[in-house]
Amino acid sequence: MTERSVMERRSAPSVQVLASAEEVALAAAEQVQRQLKRRSDSVLALPTGQTPIGLYAELSRRCRDGELSFADVRTFNLDEFVHIPPDSPLSFESYMMQHLFSHIDVDLAKVRLPNGNAPNLDAECRDYEREIAAAGGIDLAIVGIGLNGHLAFNEPGTPFESRTHVVRLSPSSREAFAAEFGGIDRVPELGITMGLGTVGEARRIILLALGQDKAEIVARALEGPVTVDVPASILQQHPNVQVILDRGAAHRLHVMS
Ligand code: GLP
Question: Which helix (H) or strand (E) holds 175?
Fold first, then answer.
């Protein structure tokens, strides 16, 4: 390792490695709570997937116990499938209702997911961008990472300056949903996602990852070259990124050894 790469690593995202998924959820919830304390009307970008389920459970508990309020918060989800009815249990909208929105005091009028059933998807993408801008931009984006390095549904090869767009999901991304949908053939081929440029403009970003399966891609994203081949590597260019990992997801990071 050259001295220069060590220095580059120092300026890289701050990385917190915790013993368990539960601790990751608590640490992430703490960050969200601090953000809402600083600005009760924060604009949040929110992920779906397995990773944030513990965080959402903890935020729900804190809200129920009166420790924090989402009453003034606006949320924009990172992504959604195209042509899955919003009331299908497989939509990201259903996921968000199930894991977070139905348990907290958020005003549902201030909640937004990309509408994969919009009659004109290009117009929907433009509207999504306009609404994020009108809200004053994203204060805090919470993101996960796909096994192929995708951020939201931005697949490898997506330009870093991309805005909200419709995407053809990669086999790897569809495979991750095969069990839920009852076979990869039933997983939608298209998604609608905030672009990397959109996420990258968030004032602050928290990346969460859990488990050994993510270790290699986490290391490539945080310590490998910044390249469109690993969309999450864009995080290395952002001035305010916090990474919260369990030990499994962290074990390939050099910074750990
Ligand atoms: C999904 C989502 C991403 C998510 C990622 C990881 O496909 N579109 O926003 O961060 O893949 O998911 P998981 O947390 O289930 O590993």
Answer: helix 171-175
Summarize pLDDT for 12-50 with one digit per residue, the tens.
689 999 999 999 999 999 999 999 999 999 999 999 999
Helices (H), the chain: 3-10, 21-38, 53-64, 92-99, 121-134, 171-175, 178-181, 196-200, 215-223, 247-250
Do 183 and 221 touch, CB atoms closer than 8 A?
no
Of 133, 153, 226, which is closest to residue 196 (Cα–Cα)? Answer: 153
Give bridge partners of residue 48 from the DSSP assignment: none
Active site (annotated) includes residue 115: no
12 or 70, which is more confident: 70
Q: Which of 55, 95, 143, 150 should be mutated for ligand 1, with most atoms under 8 A from CB?
A: 150
Beta bridge partners of 111: 75
DSSP state of 151: B
